[in-house]
Write a structure and sequence with these properties.
Shape: elongated
Radius of gyration: 21 Å
Strand order of the largest sheet: 1-2
Helix content: 40-55%
Distance between the termini: 29 Å
Length: 86
Amino acid sequence: GASLSWLWYELTRHQEVVERIIEEVQSTCGIGESADYSFDAMNKLKYTHCVAMESLRLHPPVPNDSRRAISEDVLPDGTYVPVGGE
């Protein structure tokens, strides 16, 4: 829900993006009664997909990851991770 809210917010700030999405949907799916909104047609909406991914990049659903080491460890590249380290 929050991700869609952020997407709508960003779209209200960028009308040119909304217009380009509309153009892409109309040219890919068609207009009116003959429009094809099938799964295959939706997969062709590359620009629309990129807009959704950019919104998730700007406003991630999990803004930070709070993992902490419960014991000492050494990563494959040799980095030492102390207890409580991130």
